[in-house]
Amino acid sequence: MAFKSLLASLVVVVAFLQASQAGVVNKRKTQCPGGSVHQAFNPACCTWFDVLDDLQTNVLFSTCGEASHSALRIVFHDAIGFSRTQKFGGGADGSIIMFGDTELEFAANNGIDEIAGDLKTVADAHGKSYGDIIQLAGAVGVANCAGAPRLSFLAGRPNATAPAPDGTVPDPFQPVDTILARMHDAGFSPDELVALLASHTMAAADKVDVTIPGTPFDSTANVFDSQFFIETQLKGLTFPGTGPNQGEVASPLVGEMRLQSDFALARDHRTACTWQSFVTNHTLMNQRFSDAMDKLSVLGQNTRHFLDCSEVIPHPHSLKVIPHLPAGKTMADIEPACAATPFPDLPTAPGPATTVKPVPPGS
């Protein structure tokens, strides 16, 4: 009898699972109200399609340009204002917009004021929280870049009640020990930090050197590929003399910016092998980046009542990734740092020596 009862129970469970799976498969989108052109699996996400349209039309321009780069940057600068040990900061709470008069004056947040103002305007127009608008814009900005992963988007963050303290954003001129300690305090491992730095594949610097705005961190800033992890491994040019840049190692590519933190992390024994693992594994890079961004997007938040509106995020265009050395460089120009495995053998792009073009403003 016990066996028959168990068998009957299993039949009920299997039937329930089959019905549940069928419900998922057969679930259809519903038309969003108000004459919207959008459809949603979850009608509660319909209002976010309106926000998406506003962002793409008036802020991000549906391109992998300066605005999309800035939208991803503000995600990190807002969320990293959090400490597990000292119990301060609300993490991904939009405080960088809510308390912009304070946080945008921090030296580390130089250059974020424009995207912060644009996102505030959109959030206010649609009655959305600043924490949510930052996360949506970051995910959409990433989706505008071919080859990128499709990030998730959860809605429901309340507006911040206090600003984050200064000093929570790692500085590109800090030692690796300092940067890793700050990230650890926020809950991120060295491997997760490297994954988050995949963001630099679509990044450019405006304020590190104001005389050369829009300077990319790799030679393909308009796509989401692994060239950043390759080009930071090239032997650099050391600044001579006694000036403020003495001893820093610049990119050997004309027109490319190399942050000192990126140079150091690419060569540190705690991060070098993870860094190198992304060079020829675009899928791994995207997955680790997505995982780290998921964690960052809810840092300091109680997600119990959050609404999953990931369906709002556009699907990025695919990209046939062929990792390569920039034109004019050979494997002899690589400075390997992972002791566990050799640096992969890469082809060199044809043509004259690579000159990296700046990202045009307002793109």
Q: Keywords, please?
A:
metal-binding; disordered N terminus; 38% helix; metal ion binding; Ccp1-like; Peroxidase, domain 2; 2 domains; two-stranded antiparallel sheet; 363 residues; mainly alpha; 8 strands; calcium; Peroxidase, domain 1; globular
Explain how this protein is built:
The protein is mainly α and 363 residues long. It folds into 2 domains: 42-168 and 293-312, Peroxidase, domain 1 (Orthogonal Bundle); 176-283 and 320-333, Peroxidase, domain 2 (Orthogonal Bundle), CATH 1.10.420. The protein is 38% helix and 4% strand. The protein has 13 helices and 8 strands. It has helices at residues 2-26, 46-58, 66-79, 95-98, 100-103, 113-126, 130-143, 176-186, 190-196, 227-231, 260-265, 272-277, 282-297, and strands at residues 30-31, 39-40, 154-155, 204-205, 215-216, 237-238, 249-250, 307-308. It has a two-stranded antiparallel sheet. Strands 3-8 form a two-stranded antiparallel ribbon. It has a two-stranded antiparallel ribbon with strand order 4-5. Helix 6 (113-126) crosses helix 7. Residues 1-26 have low confidence and may be disordered.
Average pLDDT, all residues: 90
Helix content: 25-40%
Tell me about the largest β-sheet: 2 strands, antiparallel
Order of helices and strands: HEEHHHHHHEHHEEHEEHHHE
Number of domains: 2
Highest CATH level, the class of the largest domain: Mainly Alpha
